[in-house]
Amino acid sequence: MLDIFEILGPVMVGPSSSHTAGAVRIGRMARTLLGAAPVRADIGLHGSFADTGQGHGTDRALVAGLLGMKPDDLGIPESFAIAANQGLEFRFHTVRLRDAHPNTAVLAVESAAGRKLVLQAASTGGGRIRVNRLDGVEVSFTGNFNTLVVRHQDVAGELARILNELSVCGVNIANMSLCRDRRGGAAMTVAETDQRIPREVLARIRTLYGVLGVTYYEKEED
Amino acid sequence: MALDSMEEIFDKARTEQKPFWQVVRDTDVEERQVTAEASFEKMRAAWRAMLESVDTYRAERRSVSGLVGGDAQKMWDYAARAESFCGPYLQEVIATALCVAESNACMNRIVAAPTAGSCGVLPAVLVPLFRRGSVDERQIVQALYVAAGIGAVIGYRASISGAAGGCQAEIGSAAAMAAGALTALRGGTAEQIGHAVAMALKNLMGLVCDPVAGLVEIPCVKRNVIGAVDAVSAADMALAGIESRVPVDQVIDCMGDVGRRLPVEFRETALGGLAATPFGQSVRERLEKTRQTTAGAAE
User: Fold this and answer.
1) Looking at CA atoms only, how far is residue A13 from chain B in angstroms?
2) What is the pLDDT of residues A95-136, one digit of tens each?
3) CATH number of residue A156's parent domain
4) CB 3.0–4.6 Å: which of A67, A129, B137, B169 could bond B165 by disulfide?
5) Please, how many CA atoms are within 13 Å of residue B11, restricted to the half-sphere of its CB?
6) Nearest-Cα residue of chain B relative to residue A100
7) Domain span at B152
8) Per-residue pLDDT averaged across B68-82, rounded?
C-alpha cells in the first residue's frame, strides 16, 4: 500500500511533485547509491521529463538531488550555480526508452575516485520514485524502505548466503528481486527491508563468496 | 489491513466501531511501526505546513512565465468590496485555492496533496473553516487522515499522476480527498464519505492535463478552484443524504481506466488542449527564446 504521508506530502518546493520533488529524489538516490559526491553527471531525460522538464525545473531538481538536497530545500532553484561551486559537471540530453514511465531519467554519474553508476528511475507521481535499472540490470525499488543492492556472480546458493546474513540479525525483507544479465554472468539482488541493516552485516555480505559489490540505501526520516 | 479499497475501510469502520480517520491512522501506525501519537504529530506537521503555505503568500510574486501570481489578492479585494455570488465561505475557498496554487507555481514551499499541482484544494476548503473557528486543529488533523486514506486508495487503484491519468487524477483526486474530509468534519458516516468521494470524482471525470508550455501554471492554478468547489458541493450533497448510484470503488477504478485511455497529448505532455492553442504555443515559443538567450549569455 501507499504511505499516507506520500499522499499528504511531501512538504516541498514547487511547482511539480512528479517533475520537481520526484526529480530531486532521483538525483539524491543516485548520489546515495554512488556512495560519494558525484563530480560528473550525464543525465538523459525521457518522455514528459524531456518534453516539459525545463519549465518544471526538473533539470535544476535532478542536479539539486545530486548535490544532496531534499525536496523541501529552498536552494533547489539555484542548484546550477551551487553545482558550479561544488565542482559538479553535468549535461542533459533527450533519450527515447522503450516501455518506460513517461517521467523517467537515466543518470550516469561518477565520483572523484572514479566510481561509476548508471541509474534509471521514474517519478511515479506525488513525489514518489521507482528505480528501474542499475548498471544495466533490471531492478525495482522505491526508496521507501531500507534497500540493499548486491551485485554478485550468478552462482548457486548466492541468494541463500545473503539472506542468511539478514536473517541472523533479525532484518525482515519487505520486497525483493534477483535478476541476472546471462547465465553464469553478473546478477543483482535487491532487498527492501523493514529494519536498518547494521554496518557489520553489510561488511560480512561484502566478503561473501561471489559478491562483487554492495550498496545500501537507508530510508530517510523527516 | 491495507488501504486498497474504500469498501475495506467501511468494513473496518463497521466491525471495529471506529471512525474513518482512525482506521487510516491505525493503518499508518501498523505499516510504519510508529505510535499513534507519532503518527498524529506527523499529520499535524503537514497541517501546519499547509497553514504556512497560505501565510507566506505574496501577491507580487510571479511564476517562471510571468503569467501567474496575484489573483488570490484580487479575489480577496473583490470579496471585501462587493457581495460575491458564492457567499463568505466559498469566496474564501476560491481565494485560498488560488493563493496556495500560485505559491507553488512561484517555487514557494507547499504540501503536495496529493500532488503539487493540486496542492491548493485541501487547504482551500479547510483553512477558511479553521480561521473562522468552526473547527479546531484536532478535528482538522483527523479530517486530513480521512483525506490521506482516500488518496491512498485512489493512488493504489487508479492514479494520482497527471502524466499517467490526466488532470482528473490530480485535481479530481484532490477534490475527492477534500470532499471526504469535509464530510467527516460534519460528522458524516464512512458511507457518506464514500458517496462524497464518488460524486466529487465523477464530476471531474475525464479532465485532461494540458499545461501551457508544460508549466504547472495555466490552467492548473485555477483548476484548484474548481477542485475545491467540486469538493464543497459533493460534501454538501453527501451530508444531505444524496448517494452516488455507482459504488465508490467502481468510480475510482473507472477514473483509472479513463486515464489510461487518454491520448498522450492530454497527459501532461503539453502537446494538446490549452497547451496547443495559439496562445499556449506563443507562450511556449517566448519561453524557448528567453531560455536560449539566457543560455547564450551564460556561455
Assistant:
1) 4
2) 999 989 989 999 999 999 999 999 999 998 778 899 999 998
3) 3.30.70.260
4) B169
5) 8
6) B164
7) 6-298
8) 96
Indicate if ipTM > 0.85. Answer: yes
Chain B contact for A127, CB < 8 A? yes
- For residue A187, the enclosing domain spans 146-217
Q: Are residues A110 and A17 in the same domain?
A: yes
Q: Does A194 touch chain B (CB under 8 A)?
A: yes
Number of structural domains (chain A) is: 2
CA distance A124 to B159: 9
Contacts with B28 from chain A: Cβ below 8 Å? 3-5
CA distance B123 to B145: 14
Which CATH number characterizes residue A66's domain?
Answer: 3.30.1330.90
| Distance from C-alpha of A168 to C-alpha of A177, rounded to nearest angstrom | 20
- Report the SS3 class of residue A13: strand
* Interface membership of A102 toward B (CB under 8 Å): yes
- Say yes or no to pLDDT of B50 above 80: yes
C-alpha to C-alpha distance for B193 and B195, rounded to whole angstroms: 5
Domain presence at residue A140: no
Q: Which three cell numbers stand for residue B296?
A: 547564450
Q: How many domains does one find in chain B?
A: 1
Is B64 inside a domain boundary? Answer: yes
Contact A124, A132 (CB under 8 A): no
